[in-house]
Amino acid sequence: MLMGEYNHSIDAKGRLIIPVRFRDVLGEKFVVTRGMGSCLSIYPMSDWEKMTEKVASLPMTDKKGRDFKRYIVSAATECELDKMGRILLPQPLRSFAELTKDVVLVGQIDFIEIWDKAKWEEVQKTFEDPDKLDEVWEGLGI
Predict the structure, then answer these.
(1) Fewer CB within 10 Å: C terminus or N terminus of the chain?
(2) pLDDT at 126
(3) What are the strands, taking DSSP E only, across the chain?
(4) How much is the pTM?
């Protein structure tokens, strides 16, 4: 399971260290692509394959489905860890998420989000009022 929050830095060459706790779950190869919001998403290969099967099943006549497919798949990059536990984030993905140096990797159970640190701090402000999440809690029966 991918959970937790880890602060890291992107080096001058665009490399990012993946936290040790995430490495075992991700495996040897995984996919990085655009995420929902202004972040990137990392998927273990098995979860990426499940998602792309669902995306591939969307009808070609569904404009929203076509747009979603283009959004996710066109930016997808297969990655492997180097000997230091780093990946190279392609410049177009770094630009999309406005990643500079300080980033936060956030586990989301079956994938990881990579946020610019300042943007993540803004996202966290929405957590300050847990009452705003009541509908989600209710929907889960919690």
Answers:
(1) C
(2) 77
(3) 5-9, 15-17, 29-34, 40-44, 77-80, 86-88, 102-107, 112-116
(4) 0.89
Torsion angle of the four alpha carbons 141, 47, 52, 71, in this order, in degrees rounded to the nearest 10? 80
Taking the C-alpha atoms of residue 93 and residue 114, their distance in angstroms, rounded to an integer, is 11
Identify the bridge partners of residue 12 per DSSP, sorted by sequence position. Answer: none
Predicted confidence (pLDDT) at residue 73 exceeds the cutoff of 80: yes
For 103-136, write each residue's pLDDT tens digit.
Answer: 999 999 999 999 999 999 999 887 767 676 677 6
Terminal C-alpha separation, the chain: 20
- Tell me which residue of 76, 119, 70 sits closest to 99, measured CA to CA: 119
Between CA 36 and CA 113 the distance in angstroms is: 9
Confidence of residue 96 (pLDDT cuts 50, 70, 90): very high
In the block, tokens 């990881």 appear at 112
On the CB side of 81, CA atoms within 13 Å amount to 17
Residue 72 pLDDT level (bands cut at 50, 70, 90):
very high
